[in-house]
Amino acid sequence: MNKYGAILSQKAHLTLSTISTFEVQPISTEVQEGGVARFACKISSNPPAVITWELNRTTLPVTTDRITALPTGVLQIYDVGQKDAGNYRCAAATVAHRRKSMEASLTVIPAKESHSFYTPTIIAGPQNITTSLHQTVVLECVATGNPKPIISWSRLDHKSIDVFNTRVLGNGNLMISDVKLQHAGVYVCRATTPGTRNFTVAMATLTVLAPPSFVEWPESLTRPRAGTARFVCQAEGIPSPKMSWLKNGRKIHSNGRIKMYNSKLVINQIIPEDDAIYQCMAENSQGSILSRARLTVVMSEDRPSAPYNVHAETMSSSAILLAWERPLYNSDKVIAYSVHYMKA
């Protein structure tokens, strides 16, 4: 704060390190030899937990082509064999906390002799995701079939998938790194039997949130007393930002002279006290931004200021008594007062 006014700083957010109990824990399952096994864990934490898996309480190596551990907390095991049978559990770890899930057993059933053909089935498709800019997201797709289906991805709007920020994890999961606004859309996973037109699809929507950014900024103004000042401020973001105005760091509320219309601040009948720093604030769930401009009120040396403490009193059905006090500045220069009125 100085003689020209005061401004509000950017907001800061303090978050504490936390971890919840498991929202999803692995469930025991029976899988036929050569099939696909899937276990899932889900936990909320700040910062996000790193999830690892154990088989019979020993860390499970996930460097093989058959086994994929997604950062979302899903474990996928393809071409299941007797050596995969046992008890699985996940461990969630942050800098400050570590949690282990309940155990779930994988039972492997010997394969039947008949190698019957069966069409592709997606046993775990992608889920709708809402994310912030620069995050990493994984769209899961697990399919079974005989012969083993081929997984491919596309966008419902037929735009090409960004190859620079996208890669396939394991046997068909799509991972998008450093998410940008153009990554938002509906993604389609297709599981196709090789060499045929037999396929099945599953789809999910990726929504990308973005903090506010200014499209138009207010500009500093110099205006005479009794004049009008207009400040314009526009911002975009997802979700749409809420706009508010501050004068010397304090929120402005509309009154008779000062009006706010979405992106505009209009000050009518300017008085010396309007000389200040004005800030426009745009805010949504992803953050807030501030832009500032100054209103300088020019005082005419010989012009009186407006009369003050104007009040009206009803005398009868046709008479009103109007009273006011002399102006604070240059009242000796007043020649006459004029009253303006209009029908309500």
From TrEMBL:
Entry-linked Pfam families: I-set (PF07679), Ig_3 (PF13927)
GO CC annotations on file: membrane
Compartments where located: Membrane
Topology class, membrane: Single-pass membrane protein
Keyword Lipid biosynthesis attributed: no
InterPro entries on file: FN3_dom, FN3_sf, Ig-like_dom, Ig-like_dom_sf, Ig-like_fold, Ig_I-set, Ig_sub, Ig_sub2
Function: May play a role in anteroposterior axis elongation.
Protein's name in the database: Protogenin
